[in-house]
Amino acid sequence: MKEFAVFWGCTIQTRFPFIEKSTRIVLESFKLPYRDIDGFTCCPEKSLVNNIDHGAFVVTAARNVALVDELDYDLVSPCTGCVSNLATVKGELRANPREKAEVNKLLKEVGREFKGTSKLQHLVPFFHDTVGVHAIKQKIKKDFTGMRIGIHYGCHMIRPSHALRNDDPLEPRKFDTLITALGAQSLQFMTKMMCCGQGLDRIDEHDRALHFARIKLKELKSLGCDALVLCCPSCFLQFDNNQFLMEKEGEKFGIPVIYFTELLGLAMGYKPEDLGMDLHRVDCTPFIKKWESLSERPPREDAIEDGLNAPGEL
Amino acid sequence: MLEATLNFKLLEQCSKCGACFSICPSCMHIPGYDPRAVIRDILDGNHDKWLSSRHIWQCLECHHCLEICYQHYGFENAMTALRTIAAKKGIHPTQVKRGWEMFVKTSRLGEPALPARKKLGLPEPKASGADEFKKLYAMLKAAREKKENPEGKGSE
Q1: Which of A175, A195, A197, A194 is nearest to A186 (CA)?
Q2: How far apart are CA A240 and CA A217, in angstroms?
Q3: Do B104 and B132 lie in a common domain?
């Protein structure tokens, strides 16, 4: 497997260092060749930077990609936004040689060159494609049989598809495959592909952001969902933080929000505290408790064996 | 230099289609949000009236419109163009401005939370590329100015 640099991004390192923790734990225990490298900046965030200055958006992203190109590494990120932005610029420059030349003229002044040779992947498709479901299954100590999970893909894990090319942009499967490989049931629900709406919080429309979160949380609650699993720090902010704010106002949904690497870590035998899950705003203990109570039941094989061998009249 | 532009030929098709309207989350959940009206105004040369509208910022950039679009174009391009023009005129939500200023100043949108990292046993964060970024951004601005006021020297 080719060495790869992890692009942590601003949001995880600023607000959710526990996501970095669980990601490192999982990468370590799979013995994956991940590297931390110097020199990254913000990816940059599209809605802030691209709306104000497209040139700054392109040059900054191209520089970040150039850093991994130089080292002949690939790039993997646990943030959907970062991967999507970097890949969007990579696609734009590869399709547009003249713009690429312009960018490289600038980059040359700081001793860099954008080639666009490195592969840019989000953590979920990376685990699906490169690590593989088989290898993951071998690491499971205790699976999630009986647990009902709602998956939130996060728009930028899969879109824009011309830049990312990793799954169907409207009916993706890979995240579902990983979650069901861990034994859980992946719920199919109306609002599954709906955008989380966190962007509204960034344009001073907090109430509307809450409204967007509420739509999905309401549906999940009505379906008896045990946890919402996602892999994007913005979506995490929206569903964990904003759900907590609604709880404080008396509107309780009680849907724990779990990062993909946390769920994987739990299945591999790590404790919730090792993974930093005690740092979530919405309490994860109902999920853990239900999971533990399920595993206290005898395994299915034993139950049927007991049934067959039980005394009875024929 | 490195400016985004709109493709009016494709937008012409957009004005007759509207497939994206049925999949866009903002269209579904924000009353009055209708990019078809925006596109019509752009084509009629009346884009100005949208610059101060909240609607252009309510596009979540989820790219659903792009994926369902028969031209793989999507009205998000129109919304991005309007936001860029509005921002140039200084009309934008305060948080966008704050985020942009932080980005230009530090090359990031926030600094790593050091005490929390220590508590979690995470390694020291790697050096950021802030200095190099600042140099690059200054050069980009200089190159643009040169292009806008070409003093004799021909540009490409």
Answers
A1: A175
A2: 11
A3: yes
Q: What is the mean pLDDT of chain B?
A: 91
3-state secondary structure of B151: coil
pLDDT reported for residue A298:
73
Q: Which of B88, B114, B138 is the last residue of a domain?
A: B88
Regarding whether B142 and B126 lie in a shared domain, the answer is yes
Q: Does the distance separating the beta carbons of B129 and A63 come in below 8 Å?
A: yes
Identify the H or E element spanning A228: strand A227-230
Q: Which one is the CATH code of A4-122: 1.20.1050.140, 1.10.20.10, 3.40.50.2300, 3.30.1780.10?
A: 1.20.1050.140
Residues in chain A within 8 Å Cβ distance of B101: none
ipTM of the complex: 0.93
If DSSP codes are grouped into helix, strand and coil, which group holds residue A249? coil
Under an 8 A CB cutoff, do B99 and A197 touch? Answer: no
CB contact residues (below 8 A), chain B span 61-90, against chain A: 61-64, 66-68, 72, 80, 83-84, 87
What one-character DSSP code corresponds to residue A129?
A: I
Whether B126 and chain A come into contact, CB under 8 Å, resolves to: yes
The predicted structure's pLDDT at residue B154? 45
Nearest to B136 among A50, A51, A106 (CB): A106
Mean pLDDT of successive 10-residue segments in chain A (314 residues)? Answer: 97 97 98 98 95 96 98 98 98 96 97 97 98 97 96 97 95 98 97 97 96 98 98 98 97 98 98 97 98 83 82 71
Q: What is the rounded CA–CA span in Å between residue B22 and residue A171?
A: 16
Residue A54: which of B4, B100, B133 has the nearest Cβ?
A: B4
From the candidate CATH numbers 3.20.20.70, 3.40.50.300, 3.40.50.11810, 2.60.120.260, the one assigned to the domain spanning A136-296 = 3.40.50.11810
